[in-house]
Design goal:
Length: 205
């Protein structure tokens, strides 16, 4: 296997790095620099025509993209510890939270990034600033939803650390890079963030 990775702050490759670290799996890795535009170069487009990272090339040459799909593949190969749930209910809860984070948090964070951030002004043909700004309340709402869930259980989707926590951690850290903050009064979410950031996997490079 060969894992095509991009360093922080890219949240999606980091999701796979943390996932692999939690499994104790070392993936042979090649770094693609988005800052240098390597994701749009012919060599990488031959691997992933979508021009995005991460990608995982399997031994028979098949290429998996989509960070969550790569995580699912690793979960099937390396079952311990289970990060997608061990029972039907755990799996459904984890899937529910991953979808909520992707759709309710990452989508508005991505819109704020694309349409308001000065870095993106260099690559976006036109920034719709009002649209970007209009996404800020959606971020606040999604963070409050997570904070409420963390009042019930130590991890986002239950008693065990899961890929839902990995998805939330990588998204919040990217949001912080974009200039957003987790409000201090979301005490449970801030506490959760300290706990999961202290796991060795959070530092996986
Ligand atoms: N849904 C995809 C998103 C992949 C994605 O957006 N990757 C970013 C890096 S975090 C990227 O390659 N951005 C460069 C671009 O889209 O041009 C996944 O989860 O893998």
């Amino acid at each position: 296997m060969l894992f095509y990775d991009t360093p922080d702050p890219a949240p999606n490759p980091r999701r796979v790095r943390i996932f692999a670290a939690e499994k104790g799996v070392a993936l042979p890795t090649q770094t693609i620099s988005i800052a240098k535009g390597e994701h749009r170069g012919d060599a990488y487009l031959a691997v992933n025509p979508l021009g995005q990272t991460p990608a995982l090339v399997l031994d028979d040459g098949e290429v998996l993209t989509e960070s969550l799909s790569i995580c699912r593949y690793l979960e099937a190969l390396y079952t311990d510890p289970p990060l997608f749930g061990a029972t039907a209910l755990e799996s459904a809860r984890i899937d529910m939270w991953v979808r909520r984070i992707e759709l309710r948090l990452m989508v508005p964070v991505g819109a704020i990034w694309a349409h308001t951030h000065p870095f993106m002004a260099r690559v976006m043909p036109h920034q719709f600033t009002d649209f970007g700004e209009s996404n800020r309340p959606l971020v606040d709402r999604a963070l409050a939803l997570c904070d409420a869930a963390l009042g019930e259980t130590p991890y986002l989707a239950g008693e065990q650390f899961s890929v839902a926590d990995i998805t939330l951690l990588t998204t919040i850290d990217f949001a912080t890079f974009v200039g957003l903050t987790v409000p201090e009064d979301l005490v449970r979410l801030n506490d959760w963030h300290r706990r999961v950031s202290a796991r060795p996997s959070a530092k996986a490079v």
